[in-house]
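Have a think about this chain, tokens included, and walk me through the fold.
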Amino acid sequence: MGKRWVKEKKKEYYYRKAKELGYRSRAYFKLLQINNRYRVIRRGMRVLDLGAAPGGWSQAALKLVGEEGTVVGVDLKRIEPLEGAVFIKGDVRDERTIKRVKEVCEEFDVIISDMSPNISGIYIMDQARSAELAETALQVARDLLRRGGSMVVKIFEGMDTKEVLKKYREEFRSVRLTSPKASRTSSSEIYIVARGFHQSRYPHSEQT
């Protein structure tokens, strides 16, 4: 058996661990690993989880914000209830969905997005769709992220990544790329970590 197969089996550690511990997906570990490095989510914060199904990131966010915090998840699919979180079934590109989110919480400290396109198998197409979703998350931030807030957003690496990062850098003080250990070796996914939101409805300024 090849080295790649061995690496993939090692990565499945996170899949098995999630099942053993009752977490909804390996994504639980991805968010914790990103947060361990960048500390974007802290106790008492309000977190909006885009593309939340099946709920792995929401579970991790709940752990990080504690009982004082708020976690709202949105997805096109129905998500099984999770104690402590509010889930909304809807399209984040739809103003009606944004209105429903605002009924729960007017603005958020952090927006996280693990949104992924339906995989076609044609990488250039999948990557472009992933870039569109990353831009959609940024548009949601313009409505719902507080000034000085942060984002963690998935994107597939490719020819559109540079342009998406440019748009994020126009809106945030600091923008980095990271790849958590829990991601599969074969995956092209990478995460944008953006901090210090200027908030478009206010004049742009540096945030501390």
The longest strand covers residues 145-156.
